[in-house]
Amino acid sequence: MPQELRPRVVLADDHEGMLQVFQRLLEPYCEIVGSVKDGRALLQAVASLSPDVVVVDVNIPAVNGIEACDLIRQSAPRTRVVIVTVADDAAIRQQAFSLGASAFVLKYRAADELLAAVRKR
Amino acid sequence: MRFAEGLHEVLDPGVQKQIFDEYFDQDRLSESSALVADTLRKKYNGTKFDVVIGVGNPVLAFLLSHGAELWPGTPEVFIFVDHRLLPAQLPPNTTAIAYADPSASTLELALQLMPKTKRVFYVGGSSPSDTARSASAEQDFKRFADKIEFTYLSNLPLAELLERISRLPDDSIVIYGGMEQDASGHVFIAARVCPLIAAASNAPVYGSYGTFVGCGIVGGRVLDFKDLGTQTGRLAMKILERGTASGLPVENWQSRPVVDWRQLQRWGISEKRLPAGAIVRFRIPSAWERYRWYVVTGLSAIIALLTLVIVLTFEVQKRRLANLEVKELSGRLIHASEEERKRIARELHDDISQRLAIVAIEIELLVRDVVLHQPEISASLQQTLRQLHEIIEDTHNLSHELHSARLQILGLEEALNEFSQQLARQHALEIEVAVNSVPSPLPEVVAFVFYRVAQEALQNSVKHSGSNRIEVRLTGGDHTLVMKIRDYGSGFDTSLPGRGLGLATMRERLKLVKGNLVVRSEPGGGTEIIAEARLEGAIKRAISAA
Questions:
Q1: B492, B523 in Cβ contact below 8 A?
Q2: pLDDT of res. B537
Q3: A64: distance to nearest CA of chain B, Å?
Q4: DSSP secondary structure letters along B345-368
Q5: Is B140 in contact with B133 (CB distance < 8 Å)?
Q6: What was the pLDDT predicted at B483?
Q7: Cβ-defined contact of A108 to B357 (cutoff 8 Å)
Q8: Sign (positive/negative) of CA torsion B238, B242, B243, B249?
Q9: Of B155, B190, B192, B148, which Cα lies nearest the Cα of B173?
Q10: What pLDDT is attached to residue B438?
Q11: Model confidence at A4, in pLDDT bands (50, 70, 90)?
Q12: How far, CA to CA in Å, does B372 sit from each of A55, B376, B377?
């Protein structure tokens, strides 16, 4: 895959195993420029790395995924936000989209859906 | 009377006895002793006595002359006789109880009680006994002559005497020695004259015979006739046992200091001046002495009641504290149970669900690899995967039920909106949520408590009110957060029990954030639930915790 088509991705999840799985899923097609475990670290990573895509879990400490999405969309509008969650919640999903998330992916469907969500323009 | 009382007290009731009384009344009759002896001889001819008791000085004289002849061999006792009139040697088979005239010792007592006394008026009579007593007193008073002036009023008619003692000079006392006859020849009983003397005299009167005490005299060294009766009875018993009076010594009739309490008061004499062992008679008990038991009983009752009041107050206080503790405990229980639900929910959400999701991803990847080469395994794996998805959904639902992460992620306003809409959809009714100036961020515990109260209140409305419209107003002030939830349904009587547990739980939850709950409702008039909490402290705590 040509280098220019490999989006630069930052991963954010407080579950180590989950971070590793995401990395395995995305690595062949993306450049994982950072992986962090809480919202505050994510905001710093976005500011310093200017990733193309952020994959963030809804329920991470310090600043949660929805709040982080809101802040990132305002501070770095070019960075797309893919929200991941362990289980579906209509209210949260709706809120995520209304705050500018580009995708909302259930973790257990990540093998099927995550790559597409990351690549989606 | 008092003599007989004393006598019969000691005479052995087991001894069969017969007592013969004879009264000579010598002062009034002045019969010749030979005539009296003759009368008695005729009267008691042939009667054998065990003991003869002669009372008084005239009888002593009579028995010394005629006793042995009248009742030969019978023991004789002479009582109420002056020591000075007893012969140096008593006849055989006789004995006596004799007195020394106590006028002098009565004067001593009087001087002890009234040390300022300068004049003593001795009041007596004209009978031979009177004269003898008067002479004896005069003799005894000689030793006081240097400091006291003595006047003897013994030869006056009673009326004149009474008049005379009614105007005695200051610092005088009267010593009444007894009057059996006055100067005009009237015969009296000495004790009967005593009250007249005491009433007429303008000075305190003292006397030496028990029969005078209580008649208006202050008191004196008193010869008490009851004492004499007792003493005579004892001596008589002794003689009856021995069969003879020989060898029994002459006994003394002892005087005792006796005063009349009423007279002490009348003359302002302090009881402190009384000698040790003095007998105080006719004491009128003081109010304290009379009512002491009423007062003591009353006070005890009051003290008992006060103690009861204190104990009960203490118990009430204890109970109030216990109630507070119970309330606090129930609050803590709710809190603890919430904490536990939260912990389990987090465990399910943050760990179990994540791991299940990872397994799901791994299986999905596996399916991709095997799908081309081994389609039957692939189908089976797909089946497993579907089951796994179901488990993940169930786990999530369970976690959400235990403790929704939604509130934490979306905030109170969004969570309220979401819950209300869901409820409205389920029950086909209208729920309007209006949120105004709610500070952000809200402390997590406040948001949680209000969310839970709203859930409970909305569910109650849906279940009980029948209202098809519910309004939720969440309004923040400078330091407060107020939530009003109103329906237009059936309402209920707030004074009746029944809705207890739900409302109580809301109240307890609000207490966790120092808030309170107001319920307004009436049958047919809908229900309004108002939850209120102060934010200042809560926010400060939240900030300092962050």
A1: yes
A2: 54
A3: 6
A4: HHIIIIIIHHHHHHHHHHHHHHHH
A5: no
A6: 95
A7: yes
A8: negative
A9: B148
A10: 86
A11: low
A12: 31, 10, 10
Are B392 and A108 inside 8 Å of each other by CB? yes
Strands B256-260 and B219-222: antiparallel
Asked if B389's CB is within 8 angstroms of A110's CB, the reply is no
Strand segments, DSSP code E, in B125-278 are 149-153, 172-178, 205-207, 219-222, 251-252, 256-260
Non-local (6+) Cβ contacts of B86 within 8 A are: B60, B78, B96, B98, B250
Of A15, A64, A108, the CB nearest to B409: A64
Query: What is the secondary structure of B198-222 as a DSSP string?
Result: HHH-SS-EEESBGGGTTTT--EEEE
Which chain B residue has its CA at the smallest distance from A64's CA? B409
Which chain B residues contact residue A112 at CB under 8 A? 364
* Block residue for tokens 């709040």: A67
Mean pLDDT by 10 residues, chain B (546 residues): 80 75 72 84 85 89 88 92 88 92 90 94 91 89 93 92 94 94 91 93 94 93 91 91 90 92 93 92 85 92 96 94 83 81 86 90 86 81 89 87 80 88 90 88 85 90 89 89 92 72 81 87 90 71 42
Please choose, from the candidates A37, A30, A21, the residue with its C-alpha nearest in 3D space to the C-alpha of residue A107.
A21
Residue A1: pLDDT over 50: no
Residue B369, both tokens: 């690899």
Q: Cα(B422)–Cα(B436) distance, rounded to whole angstroms? A: 21
Are B214 and B184 a contacting pair, CB within 8 Å? no
Q: Do B350 and A108 touch (CB under 8 A)?
A: no
Residue ranges of alpha helices (H) inside B371-438 are 375-402, 406-410, 412-427
How far the first Cα of chain B sits from its last, in Å, is 108
Q: How far apart are CA B292 and CA B300, in angstroms?
A: 12
**Of B349, B361, B365, which has the smallest distance from its Cβ to A59's Cβ?**
B349
DSSP B250: P
